[in-house]
Amino acid sequence: RMPLLEQCYNLYDFEAVARQVMKRTAWGYYSSGADDEITMRENHTAFQKIWFRPRILVDVTEVDTSTTMLGTKCSIPFYVTATALGKLGHPEGETVLTKAAGKHDVIQMIPTLASCSFDEIVAAADGKQTQWFQLYVNKDRKITERIVKHAEQAGCKGLFITVDAPQLGRREKDMRAKFSDIGSDVQKSEDPDAIDRSQGAARAISSFIDPGLSWKDIPYFQNLTKMPIVLKGVQRVDDVIRAVDHGVTGVVLSNHGGRQLDTAPTGIELLAEVMAELRQRGIQDKIEVYIDGGVRRASDIVKACCLGAKGVGIGRPFLYAMSAYGEKGVSRAMQLLKDEFVMNMRLIGARTIDELTPDLVDTRGLNVH
Ligand code: FNR
């Protein structure tokens, strides 16, 4: 029997339920990572290499978790990151995430490849909540121009250009699930797309992405929109410096949840390296640095903030909560994170996000160069 929602006490519990109740194809698409899934696993374990250095006897009666990301206020430094194909998990798709995010004053990033239309996801918002837009750049720039302008007019407060996916990674769980379900049709079909579909959901939907995207295109996007531009999927320190030189507002240190290049570095380890370099150059205030990948506990978020992240993105846990329990599930997942976050701040002796400083963490266990 399916556990009651109240029996989910942490984000892993939602994953366990989702695994039981989701369709094989949907589970395959959401849960898969690239190749041997080494990066996907490491994303979470990397956080466990960081230890706290709690400060005692601080009056933590009042704790304020609110912060700003890209200039807008929000209740806590995490956001719902962009994940494609929400309707695989729930008939109302991404709007389920929108509603839960609205209740919790959490920012949502709308994916280019949402199952709901962009307008539906904007309409599901409560009018006050902040939404960002994640862009996969189309080979046909006219299409990209149209959707970016539309996102800006609809009030999106940030443009996240995904830069780690010139080609989609190879996710074998997704491919196998797809193949076993539709394999017989594929063999019969004359449809040229059938080959693509046998490669899994991910590859079937991504053939429009422009592998020619390069640094030369950044000024084009800066001219196209007034939305702050953030590069999502940066994986090297020198690329962060280049991003600063190009005048973008932010970067997300991310390996796409371990779905792209296997054995790519984790966001949290890269963060330590990036912030050290930015501080050394005295340019740490020139760019907002975000990370995503493997965030499952509020302590992970606290650690990222201590190391200098403005915020973190969370992907799969909200998809699992949505697939298992709908909006109430996502809302409970967010509340659990909020409760854990306040507790963690009290226990390390920090009252505000500004008080989350590097001295509160011991990073000697990280593989930092
Ligand atoms: C993603 N991610 C993603 N990123 C992006 O820029 N565009 C997209 O369409 C998608 N789609 C997508 C689908 C699914 C099912 C997953 C799990 C992920 C990557 C996502 O934004 C983020 O980088 C990771 O999900 C973060 O890792 P966790 O939180 O899932 O561990």
UniProtKB/TrEMBL annotation:
Protein's recorded name: L-lactate dehydrogenase (cytochrome)
Subcellular location: Mitochondrion intermembrane space
Essential cofactor(s): FMN; heme b
Family: In the N-terminal section; belongs to the cytochrome b5 family.
One Gene Ontology cellular component: mitochondrial intermembrane space
First-tier enzyme category under EC: oxidoreductase
Binding partners and assembly: Homotetramer.
Reactions listed under catalytic activity: (S)-lactate + 2 Fe(III)-[cytochrome c] = 2 Fe(II)-[cytochrome c] + pyruvate + 2 H(+)
EC number: 1.1.2.3
Positions of the FMN hydroxy acid dehydrogenase domain: 3-366
MF annotations from Gene Ontology: heme binding; L-lactate dehydrogenase (cytochrome) activity; metal ion binding
The keyword Protease is annotated on this UniProt entry: no
Key word Iron present: yes
Gene Ontology biological process terms from the UniProt entry: lactate metabolic process
Keywords: Flavoprotein, FMN, Heme, Iron, Metal-binding, Mitochondrion, Oxidoreductase
